[in-house]
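Can you give me the bound-state structure? Components:
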Amino acid sequence: MNKTVVIKYPAGNIQSVLHALDRLGTSAVWTDDPKEIRSASRVIFPGVGEASTAMAYLRHSGLDEVILGLQQPVLGICLGLQLFCRHSAENDTACLGIFDVPVLKFEAKGLYKVPHMGWNTLEATHGPLFHGIPPESYVYFVHSYYAVRSEYTSATTPYTLPFSAALQRENFFAVQFHPEKSGKIGQQILHNFLNIK
Amino acid sequence: MLAKRIIPCLDIKNGQTVKGVQFQNLREAGDPVSLAAAYAEQGADELVFLDITATQENRRTMVSLVKQISAVLNIPFTVGGGIQSVAEVGDLLQAGADKVSVNSAAFKRPELISELAQAFGSQCVVLAVDARPDPEWQVYLKGGTQPTGRDLLSWVKESVDRGAGEILFTSMAHDGTKNGFALEMTRQLSEAVPVPIIASGGAGQVSHFVSAFTEGMADAALAASVFHFGEISIPSLKQQLHNYGIPVRL
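Here's the bound-state model for the whole set.
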């Protein structure tokens, strides 16, 4: 059985993720049913939105415990990555703590505008998500908060400072950029995730 | 390094792409869904769809078009044209748009920007502004036909204070001329506000894009007919920008 689940919760632009999976020939199930999520062969946790509202929803619905208990490959995208961290500076929010790192806000200075929006490069990539991805490949970002670099960092991107463009710890993967909006490179990264054994 | 973005703009009328010269004499340029896919394939960084004849019934057509575009497109896109309410924006984002641009309705009721930023986040709220130097730069409405008397810079600053996450600045004096972008004003805007500026109006040749990014300090450059009619090809444009040392996604 090979089932990909996208976790359903009030976060923007889930449709783009489902479409991107469709283009890869994977028809994912979009659900918040804990049984369906636990029985999936892989789980995607997308998200565009605000950290404290999203965390409050996860706690209230019990999805926080469901996510923490997952053993299969899990991919957090954008806000998903931030919620996997310990704490977010966005409205001083305690997050899931899968990665024991803080999420901070970019400081706008000079030509560095906030949000960090647009195509930026992936550097120092390693791990299964980045198989076949050439160095300095461009991916699409839209965010004002970032996870600091840590032992879990599997790719960095420079913006005011090098931050974690991707994190991995055991079966938990997370990317700050939007693979579903990152052209062919993004497609390859999603494909890599769907093929993690 | 953050790349400078190249953004083809598709003006949509009744579900079809059109491009006006100085916003007059519309002529047909193709089917938006196939054009969108072709542009993504060529290396466009983002697309903008402007519904130039937005009405209530056209809005439904636009939402269904956005769904079709979202299914094929693997790069971000913005939808604009006649947007007046939070509910409309909700529908467009739900259909798969990444951002929306607001223009006249935001000018007439600036609270719209605050409401949209609050509901969906600044990152998906683009303020589109058309302006002309008379000789002081003032904001125009209705496709550049109606002067407002409002100073461009002060309106752009207010919109950013209210939560606009990006500015799409079109110089009506340059649009359709193919003589280059309004560099001086683009630069002033870029220095005045902490959000990205998209330069628009006047693209005719590669050197115009180069100066938009260097002298104009734009974060992105938008054009329509030079791309639609194949006068400038995106792969060759980006290669030349790269040769000039401008960071682009190749």
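A couple of observations. The first strand of chain A starts at residue 4 and ends at 7. Residues 183-194 of chain A form the longest helix (12 residues).
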